[in-house]
Amino acid sequence: MRLPPFSLPALARAVGALLCAIWAGTHAEAAPMGDGAVRQTLVHAVLASGPEQQRLLEQLSASGSRLARETMTAWTRDEILIYVGPSGPKVPVILEEQQDAQGKARARRLDDGSVLRDPQGIELRFAVGDLDSVDTDMRQRAAIQQALDALALSDPDPDARRSAVVKLGNSQRTHYLPLLRARLGVESDGAVRKALQAATALLELGGSDLTSRIAAVRRLGDLAAVGAVDRLKQVQAAGPPPLAAAATAALARIERHITIINFFGTLFRGLSQGSILLVVALGLAITFGLMGIINMAHGEMIAVGAYTSYVVQNIFGSGFGFHITLPFSFAGHPIAFGFSLPGLNATGGWYESYFLFAIPLSFFMAALAGIVVERTVIRFLYRRPLESLLATWGVSLIMQQAFRMIFGANNVQVNSPAWLLGHFTVHDVEFGYNRVFVIGFAVLIVIGTWLLLTRTPLGLFIRAVMQNRDMASCMGVRTERINLLTFAFGSGLGGLAGAFLSQIGNVGPSLGQNYIVDSFMTVVVGGVGSIGGTVSSAAAIGTSDQVLQQTTGSPVMGKIIVLCVIILFLQWKPGGLFSTKSRSLD
Amino acid sequence: MPNFSDTIVIRRGILRRIPARIESIAVAIAAFVLIVVLPCLNAFTPPGSGLHVSDFTINLYGKYLCYAILAISVDLVWGYTGLLSLGQCLFFALGGYMLGMHLMLMIGRLGQYHSDLPDFMVFLGYPRLPVHWVPFRHFWFAASAVIWVPGLVALAFGFLAFRSRIRGVYFSILTQALTYAASLMFFRNDFTFGGNNGFTDFKFVLGHDLRSPATQRGLYVCTSVLLLVVYLGCKWLTATKLGKVQRAVRDSENRVLFSGYATAHVKLFVFVLSAIIASLAGALYVPQVGGINPSEMTPDKSLEAVVWVAVGGRGTLIGPVLGSIGVNALKSWAARAYPDLWLIILGSLFILVVLFLPGGVVSLPGIIARWWRRRRDASP
After folding, report:
1. Residue A271: which residues within 8 A CB-CB, separation 6 or more?
2. A319-330 and A333-342 as β-strands: parallel, antiparallel, unpaired?
3. Most B-contacting residue of A393, A405, A517, A569 (CB-CB within 10 A), to test interface
4. CB count, 10 Å around CB of B370?
């Protein structure tokens, strides 16, 4: 489990340093150090030599300080230089990265972090070769590296700690063992503890005592350490027989574990895929299931939503504009149009929040597109459902071409905000935040739609118009307006799906085409006019699609099997999962 | 679900058509021009002269006429029986693939890899010819497969669909899904049909060089004769009692059902027949175009064929022919003149036809005549 993100870094660093201090054991003089103290220790360490340097390095490695880590990393790269001033004392400095026209850079003093100046107070500038770097021999480098590794083990961020542990575990250097064991004694984070156990076992495996090696292999198997597979395979192939046998057993256990991980990972991805399908299909269930309109342009409503996210992202960034010149001319002037929106040039968290604005906007843009389509085309076709399929296909062609002209034929880049990028891990199964977000939002949307249809006057009117248009009209319901609103709502849901899709896939002019067949099938399988049916069939189709992709090893076979199963399923239940019972003959 | 199906079709019944006598005279003239005049002008006039019809034109018209046959098959299920099938292109492409398999094997060792296997099999590392390819060495087997393979697919699918009374938009959605699944299958490399490149580089058909103008002319004549046969056959079929039941199913299936007709059998027969017609068109299309790939069997292509029929005029036999040739000629021109706007033109054309001209182009003369008569009556 992750530490909660709000844990105070200072507290964590103090705790880390304290824990390291306990590890330090015999040389337990180290205490949490401030930046000033760290700087002083660093300067002394750079200038010292022999056992004294060793002692200082150990002190530093217990400090848990980021500054110490950065400086020591620079040290291993020979970037710490020695300035010998006119007055005599050696001053360790690090050159800044920014160079001026002569290739010279300012130097920062290691002891207080200020810029190096001459006695008159003028900034000194040096080129790379001007100053000598600190002499380090092999032994010193190794010592520094070890101190660095130990520092990484006490990093306040558990993820960083874990990757440091994994790195040490794979290093095959047994001298890290005491370090890791000590850390294991104080580590509180579960994932890091597991990594530590695996790493110690891996290092013990590299030892010479057969019994402890076999025990290590067994432990790796018990831990189901996925990262140890390669090493275990080596042992299985080349190790002595009892060890190889243990390795085989451990590998089998790990293999089983991996299968389980993959299964749950697939299930999770399938669920997120299913929830996107659900939002798309929910829109269709409303326009098709409730209104009887086959909207082949529904896929383009998805694309409207996805492109809206793109435009919003660009408005938060450097702006958005397009320009189209038609191949006609009028009185000698080519017909051209276009517009541009200035960008906000937002940065950091403000920029990252663009997606929060994109979600409602994509709903409204798609709903607006839906209103236009309804007013211009669909309202003439309420009594001719088959023909609505044809006319909306024409709409879909026009919209696709419009996307191509405005945004180009290639995919556009929509960056996920940082808060959607990471993942959390439960028992080695990765859960991407973006997918969790999509699933959560889909649930909200379903609940919202259900509430709208069953708990609001508008929902009552919608259901009334769908059940009997003429009767509803006689009772004073403005059916024209209800049709318009229903269609706009269905299209808006498509737009929402597009906004989510932009976070987990590519955005291109034919984005919607990939979903249209699937989502029509979802509605048909779920039972036309039934929200509950749509929900369950979207989950079933999305998940089985992913699982079959995994098991057949090809994305296409899974789709084909699903489609065939659906066709056969409809033999058994032609009305879908939850068909509305009616005595009328259709 | 509200019930719309009964109200729609009555309007369609009163759509004005071209009078029968004018239609048969026009068809006779057109058939004579297409079957006799054009090939003769291509074969017997010198390339420079004003009367000459170039090889390119012959090839282009051959393609259009294949589309016309496909359009008639769409019209037979949609215009006459009311089943909007989005799978006609699947059958069209299947026919193409069946003949294409034979043509691939006829390349012999002239391919790039100089192997007995077709090029793509060498490329994909097949050790030997897959078993189901072997009989396709014989032309007559391939030619019969053009008929029975799509026929069986249509029979199986149609049986399942009509048995469970899937109709209207559900039938459209299911055929769309079937076509989509099939195209995905054919896009796969290990499906032994060449993956997304499909078949290409044909050399010979029945010993004739496919690249020679004479062979292409022969294929063109075959196509135009087939079109005439299909046209006349469908004209006869729709005039029989079966044709009447067919239209009755379109107009009100329940009434037909309650009158004691097995509508599922009628629909199944028409569906299989139209699949075979589409497949024949595909088989003739492939050697003239010189290749076939899975993009020919996507649901979009089927919808495009439906557009031709809608534009020309559904429920007539002359309409699909006019529509397919007209729309494709427009496409050839627009794709060259305004490549960016072609899809917008096609889309708008479709919306306008569906909204304002449900009877298609062939209903225009009737509309104009009616308008003229009303004008005359209004001002004596």
Report:
1. A435, A439, A539, A542, A543
2. antiparallel
3. A393
4. 11
C-alpha to C-alpha distance for A153 and B67, rounded to whole angstroms = 71
Tokens read off for B335: 């794709």
How many interface pairs between A and B have CB atoms less than 8 angstroms apart?
A: 140
Distance from CA of B188 to the nearest CA of A (A): 8
* Range 280-339 of A in CB contact (< 8 A) with B: 288, 292, 294, 326-327
Fill in the DSSP letter of residue A135. P
| Interface contact flag, A394 B172, Cβ < 8 Å | no
User: Residue B206 — φ and ψ, nearest 5°?
Assistant: 50, 40
Biggest alpha carbon–alpha carbon distance for chain A: 104
DSSP string covering A529-572: T-HHHHHHHHHHHHHHHHHHHHHHS-HHHHHHHHHHHHHHHHHH
Crossing angle of helices A555-572 and B139-163, rounded to 10° = 50
Neighbour-count burial for A278-288, b at 16+ CB within 10 Å, e otherwise: bbbbbbbbbbb
Instruction: Tell me whether A557 touches chain B (CB under 8 Å).
Output: yes
Could B346 and A580 be called an inter-chain contact, meaning their C-beta atoms sit closer than 8 Å? Answer: no
Parallel, antiparallel or unpaired: strands A105-109 and A90-95: antiparallel
B181–A570 CB contact, under 8 Å: no
What does the alpha-carbon distance between residue B53 and residue B226 come to, in Å, rounded to a whole number? 21
CB A485 within 8 A of CB A466: no
For residues B200 and A538, what is the distance between their CA atoms, to the nearest angstrom?
40
Pair type for strands A80-84 and A90-95:
antiparallel
Is residue A584's pLDDT more than 80? no
Helices (H), A377-432: 385-407
Residues B239-261: what's their mean pLDDT? 91
- The encoded tokens of residue B309 equal 């029929």
- The stretches of B78-206 forming alpha helices (DSSP H) are 88-106, 119-123, 139-163, 168-187
Using a CB-CB cut-off of 8 Å, the residues of chain B touching A571 are 160, 163-164
Between CA B77 and CA A458 the distance in angstroms is 40
Report the C-alpha gap between A24 and A21 in whole angstroms.
Answer: 5
Please spell the DSSP secondary structure of B301-316, one letter per residue: HHHHHHHHHHHH-TTS
CA max distance for chain B: 83
Q: What distance in Å separates residue B140's CA from the closest CA in chain A?
A: 31
Cβ–Cβ contacts within 10 Å for residue B327, how many? 25
Task: Determine, for residues A327 and B341 on separate chains, whether the beta-carbon distance falls below 8 Å.
Answer: yes
Per residue in A133-190, pLDDT tens?
777 777 777 777 777 777 777 777 777 777 777 777 777 776 677 777 777 777 777 7
Residues of B in contact with A586 (CB under 8 A): 1, 3, 5, 168
User: Which pLDDT score is estimated for B231?
Assistant: 94
Which of B163, B254, B354 is opposite residue A391, by nearest beta carbon?
A: B354
3-state secondary structure (DSSP) of residue B124: coil
Verify whether the Cβ–Cβ distance B184 to A556 is below 8 Å: yes
List CB contacts (< 8 A) between B157 and chain A.
Answer: 567
Model confidence pLDDT, tens digit, residues B77-132: 999 999 999 999 999 999 999 999 999 998 888 888 888 888 888 888 888 888 88
Indicate the helix (H) or strand (E) that contains A424: strand A423-426
Question: Is A401 within 8 Å of chain B by CB?
Answer: yes
Q: Which of B184, B192, B226, B189 is nearest to B104 (CA)?
A: B192
Which two structure tokens, joined as six digits, stand for B244? 């009447």
User: A105-109 and A333-342 as β-strands: parallel, antiparallel, unpaired?
Assistant: unpaired
Q: Per-residue pLDDT averaged across B293-306, rounded?
A: 89
Cα–Cα distances in angstroms (integers) from residue B286 to residues A289, B57, B195, B292, B322, in the given order: 40, 17, 16, 6, 22
Please return the burial class of A489, using the count of CB atoms within 10 Å of its CB with bins 0-12, 13-18 and 19+: buried
Determine which of A81-95, A465-479, B199-213 has the lowest per-residue pLDDT on average.
Answer: A81-95
Measured between CA atoms, the residue of chain A closest to residue B83 is A386
